[in-house]
From TrEMBL:
It comes from Candidatus Parabacteroides intestinigallinarum. CDD domains: Obg. Residues 163-329 form the OBG-type G domain. Its EC number is 3.6.5.-. Gene3D superfamilies: GTP1/OBG domain (2.70.210.12), P-loop containing nucleotide triphosphate hydrolases (3.40.50.300). The keyword Metal-binding applies. GO terms for biological process: ribosome biogenesis. This is GTPase Obg.
Amino acid sequence: MAESNFVDYVKIYCRSGKGGRGSSHFRREKYIPKGGPDGGDGGRGGHVYLQGNRNYWTLLHLKYERHIMATNGENGGAKRSTGKDGEDRIIEVPCGTVVYDADTGEFICDVTKDGERVMLLKGGRGGLGNFNFKTSTNQAPRYAQPGEPALERRVILQLKLLADVGLVGFPNAGKSTLLSVVSAAKPKIANYPFTTLEPNLGIVSYRDNRSFVMADIPGIIEGASEGKGLGLRFLRHIERNSLLLFMIPADTDDIRKEYEILHNELVKYNPELLDKRRVLAITKSDMLDEELIEALSQDLPEGIPFVFISSITGLGITELKDLLWKELNEESFHEAERIVHKNIDINSLEFEDEEDEYVFPIDEDEEDPDEEYEAYWDDDAEDDRK
């Protein structure tokens, strides 16, 4: 994976901006000996947002920028001048990115649409200037509010590919070969296990200029839900697929048993996958005659649509496309697209280094020793400031 540009999870450190402090300034002008308080409010700190961008397909750009920090709000000034707000930081991520807390593994949010924006950390509010505390009994307040502190958080971003059809099968089941035949994708194909080390997407053309997206997921073996093989590394991508296409070679000793192993691994990983629609494709069927195909059809899993195909000779490819399109357009189909994200085990993920463990100190403003600050927030004086 070190040579690949496909990065589907990364840990980053985020920090919002600190709110600027309010000013405790007094009006000083010629011939106005008692001008009164005119200290302005501090500006708010910058927010940290996540935004979906359909032009990204990997989290590679965040692998080398793992410290995202918004700027602080500026302090208030004289003549009721409000400090400048801090600059927001927008983290652009591919559609299908899920965010988890890096310390607890708790699910935070999900970004699935292009242009969708989610606030990850809110900037601190700016402090109120002493002008806001002027009353009939306290006409010369010599105090103001400090800005709210910045918020910081370590998060894990995981990419779960968005596709209509996901290919599920053991290594060397013919998944990459099928994708190369029905689409313009060029995945690596070789006669040894785990040829595919990263998911591949392809656009499958259908009749009347229609199309759907197919995803080639690296091979699954028994025990993948416990971390064996490529394990949890790529099982997460199957959660995003609307329809699962199970692929089992025709020369398998027991097709039903192999299907049950694959199905059980998916359910162990996430029980929500049980609600997804499934289709079974028996690959490498060019070695079978009609009699064998009829015999094998009698022992296939019940209730699952199936088709015998051969990516080499083109046997059953058209029938497979028709079946997939029919299943994708079932009336009850979209009910299964809903995904419930569970919390993750952060110990199951490996990171190349831990440089992001460094905690950046939050810069503190040099306070004027002649100024005093309120240690609380007066919501009445704030007048619903944002």
